[in-house]
Amino acid sequence: MDYLNLDKKKTENTVKGLNVLLADYHVYYQKLRNFHWNIVGKNFFDLHEKFENMYNDAKVKIDDIAERILTLRYQPISNLSEYLKVSNISESNSDCTDVEMVETLLKDHGILLKQMRKVVDCASLDEDEGTIDLIGAYIRELEKTSWMLDAWIMNTGDNKQKVKMK
User: Fold this and answer.
1) Which residue, of 19, 23, 91, 166, has the greatest Cβ tally within 10 A?
2) Taking the domain 7-153, which CATH number applies?
3) Quick one: 148 exposed, middle or buried, by C-beta within 10 A (0-12, 13-18, 19+)?
4) Mean pLDDT across the stretch 116-137?
5) Tens digit of each residue's pLDDT (9 = 90 or more) over 36-56
6) Cβ atoms of 92 and 111 closer than 8 Å
C-alpha cells in the first residue's frame, strides 16, 4: 500500500468501522425499499418519491464505502447474513404509518451518524484523509436529510431554539 502512503496495520481499525458502516447502509437501504413499496395514505406521493431518492443515494454510498475498503487493500464484507450480524440497524416491519416510517429513519440516521463519526475518529488516528473526506461529506448530507425529515414530522407550531445574541 506504498502508493497511498498509509500503514496497512494502522488502517485495519478504519476498515473494521467501514465494514460496519457498509452493513448499516445495506440494512438501511433495504428498509428504504420496504418503506417505498409499502407507504400508503395521504402522504404517499411525497414519501414514495422521497424514499426512492434516499435509497438511490444509499446505493451509491454502499458502492463508495466498499470501494474505499478495497482502496485500502482489504475485502469488504458482502453477504446479507453477515450484514445482519454486524449492522447496528435492525430491519423494520412493512405495516408502519408514514410518521412511524420517518421516525424510524431518523433513528437510523442517528445510528449511521454515530458509526460515521467512529470511522472518522479511526481514520484521523490513521492519518487517512481520503476516508475522512468521504465520510465527512456523508455526515453533512445525512444531517441535512435528517433535518428535512424532522421538519416533516414537526407540528406547525413547534419552535426551533433561538441563539441568544448580545
Assistant:
1) 23
2) 1.20.1260.10
3) exposed
4) 97
5) 999 999 999 999 999 999 999
6) no
